[in-house]
Amino acid sequence: MSLPASIDETVKLLSTGAYVAERPLATVLYLALKMGKPLLLEGEAGVGKTEVAKVLASALGRKLIRLQCYEGLDISAAVYEWNYQAQMIEIRLAEAGGTAAREDLASDLFSEKFLLHRPLLQALEPDTAGPPVLLIDELDRTDEPFEAYLLELLSDFQVTIPELGTIKAKEPPIVIITSNRTREIHDALKRRCLYHWVDYPSEERELEILRARLPEAPETLSREITAFVQRLRGEDLYKKPGVAETLDWARALIELDAVSLTGENINDTLGTVLKYQEDIARIEGSEAARLLGEIKTRMAAGEEKVGL
Questions:
Q1: Would you say 247 and 215 are in contact if contact means Cβ atoms under 8 Å apart?
Q2: For the whole model, what pTM was predicted?
């Protein structure tokens, strides 16, 4: 599938994967695709940053190559590594045969057939379906030296392997970088990207997301879940729930055949939406009942206005 030709087409493209995008996000994604620039998405965990890359790859029919970042990530895990076992076997065979010159053997050992391609190198390879979507996920978890290594890739879509030289993509991949902002990403990397902050959605958009992802959920339940999560984010919590937790909570309640929120099913399932015991202890019981009461009162008032 070809790239979207407008912002509206970008919105529609994402909607095919049940991703409800606000126009500013669709705009920056459209521009990143049009300009061939990497896109850096920052925001709290669980707000849908990673999902942008997944939905985009699926909608375009492109391969998704994901590099999950972590502390200590190095070139051998992210870019390339030599197949040392195969090289040792080659050396033993050459010694047994006694025919290979040392210079020829060294040249052969560091050739393409012994090179193991890791995600960043795979993203530079041609593909019949078109350039892949490269997701560099949670870049803020890595060390700064690795972030510096990415500068060549993001500028020129190439990597340099000392033994082989420079490998450059014939067609640049679509690059989506995410960060939860546990540390600041360096300015040099940001300059190579377009940027967007993905915030928690409004209540109306979160309800749209829930309807799109879980159309089987009862309407009353969807509205109450969305309203409850929105209020949870206003509480003094160690970790506020993201959209991912909203969807998990809705799935859990659907499995329990719930048609609306009650004090009992909230307390029984808080572990699907809150992930720290301190937060659960703060909300369960009387606080949950208070929030639920406010929600039901507001919704009842809204229904009365509609009736008038």
A1: no
A2: 0.89
Q: What is the pLDDT of residues 124-179, one digit of tens each?
A: 999 999 999 999 999 999 998 899 999 999 999 999 998 888 999 999 999 999 99
| The amino acid at 184 | E
What is the DSSP code string of 120-154?
HHHTTS--TT-SPEEEEE-GGGS-HHHHHHHHHHH
Contact 46, 243 (CB under 8 A): yes
Got the DSSP string for 216-277? TS-HHHHHHHHHHHHHHTTS--SS---HHHHHHHHHHHHHTT-SS--HHHHHHHGGGT--SH
pLDDT band at 85 (very low <50, low <70, confident <90, very high): confident
Task: Identify the residue whose tokens are 């949670």.
Answer: 138
Q: Are 302 and 255 in contact (CB under 8 A)?
A: no
